[in-house]
Amino acid sequence: MNAHTSHHHRQQQASRYLTVALVLTLAFAAIEAVAGWWSGSLALLGDAGHMVTDAFALGLAAVALWIARRSPSRRHSYGMGRAEVVAALVNGLFMLIVVIGIVVEAIERLRAPQPVIGGAVMIVATIGMAINIIVALLLSRGEQTLNIRGALLHVIGDLLGSMAALVAGAVIYFTRWTPIDPILSIFICLLILFASVRLMRDALHVIMEGVPAHLDLHDVGQTMVSDDASVQSVHDLHIWSLSSGVVALSAHVVIDEMSHWDDILRGLRQLLHERFGIDHVTLQPETTTHVLQHWPSGTGPSS
Length: 303
Description:
single chain, 303 residues, mainly alpha, Alpha-lytic protease prodomain-like, Alpha-Beta Plaits, 3-stranded mixed beta sheet
């Protein structure tokens, strides 16, 4: 199985997991929303709101995954793989909106506490935790692309929300201290905020064609030069992500003899695949004489 076929298989597997997760999330969101309204629990209502946004996030991730599987075309020669990255960015932004809404409501609840039925909150929150754990395990089994990370962020946020609701329900049931409900909601929102910002940062890094975090541009260039004595230097080296898990590299390679290029190219492709996991490689050969003719005196190609 080659890299492209393997990636396509992982995408199909992830699509199935997303579909199952979407159905489970939508079903429980309706139950939790009704229970939250009846019991007067902000933690449950907030968690139900999270699950609705989860359903949106999972649906968006599934659509993005379907778009990303489309073949390259004349208008999109690299394909539509970055649809997953865009979906991750949108999911991160959407999660920020949810967090802000819950925090605002929690502050209002702290100012004007409302009665909460602690027992009902505990029961529904326990079921919610079970659903969220199942969904999180499903998504964790797939390839951890930015798209899946975005969907998983919503699910983990809901799992934490259910845990907060369970604790809040228990405290209210035994002590009648209702401020615990909004306090825990704010605490969970802070945790989700950190994860959301990190996800959006990673998505923007891909969109801005930054070097993948696990790779060092200088290290890759030095390895290409040191691995083969026929390679004099490397310049105009660029490494970027076409989409999550699909890394591309382009560079100009300075060599002694153009007649050796086929062997050098084969060796560099194998090196980049085995050492750095880079399979989408475009290399342009140049002879030392050609480079010296085109670079000003006293300068040379950067390695």
